[in-house]
Amino acid sequence: LGVDLPIGLEGEIGLSATVVETPAGRTADIALDLTPTAIDVPQLNWHKTASVPGALNASANIPADGPLQVTAFTLMSDGLSAEGSLEAQLEPFRLAQLHVDRVRFGDTRAAVVLRPADPSGYDVWIEADTLDLAPWLDREEPEGGRGGASLDASWRIDLQAQRLLVRGAAFTAVDADLVRGPDGWHSADMRGRQPGGGEFALTLTPE
């Protein structure tokens, strides 16, 4: 289908697809069996070994000229499941927008919206019942990159979380506005309730 995703794939992928050619491009209903596939998503610090069950179902419009439009997708695997929609340019692959209506990732339960903010950055809105930061705190920095929504890009993050897990500590009623560039965090404004009770407020500003 001419889609080069910014993740690592190794092994076989079971494919069932209905593709319709039109003058404007192609439409496709796709079902992927990911069980025999090893998958590496460094942006999330998530890895699936071959033989672990996994599946991806999607409906997509692939125009002859313009962004890929995935009108609906459902991903299910060990430790990660999500459903939503996205748009992306294909060559090179870059997300134009991503709407994740529901994501389960470890202990995280959230909805996410991502849109480009400039040629190398993204705006992200996260509304979470629970957001566990362990995958990112434990993440090893990759050598080089695969494109897509790299963590080495610039990010502005608007976060609302009923519960925020930081190395086992649970902060509640968290509201945060965070800005990160390729060289690290630029600013942060965060408030909420501490694990032992009482409120906290944190502000990080550039020197």
Summarize the structure.
The chain is mainly beta and 207 residues long.
Order of strands, main sheet, comes to 2-3-6-7-8-9-10-11-12-13-14-15
Low-confidence stretches: 144-148
Beta-strand segment tally:
15
Q: Taking all residues together, what is the mean pLDDT?
A: 87
**Cα radius of gyration in angstroms:** 18 Å
Helix and strand element order: EEEEEEEEEEEHEEEE
SSE-based structural type: mainly beta
Please work out how many helical segments DSSP would assign. Answer: 1
Shape: globular
| Helix content percent band | under 10%
N- to C-terminal distance: 48 Å
Main sheet record: 12 strands, mixed
The fraction of residues assigned to DSSP E strands is: over 45%
Written account of the structure:
By secondary structure, the protein is an all-beta fold. Helix content is 2%, strand content 66%. It contains one helix and 15 strands; from the N terminus they run βββββββββββαββββ. The protein has one helix at residues 134-137; strands at 8-11, 14-22, 25-33, 37-41, 46-48, 54-63, 68-77, 80-89, 94-105, 108-118, 121-132, 154-166, 169-181, 184-193, 199-204. The strands form two sheets. The protein has a twelve-stranded mixed sheet with strand order 2-3-6-7-8-9-10-11-12-13-14-15, with no helix packed on it. Strands 1-4-5 form a three-stranded antiparallel sheet, with no helix packed on it. A hairpin with a 2-residue loop joins strand 13 (169-181) and strand 14. The radius of gyration is 18 Å and the shape is globular. Mean pLDDT is 87; it is low at 144-148.
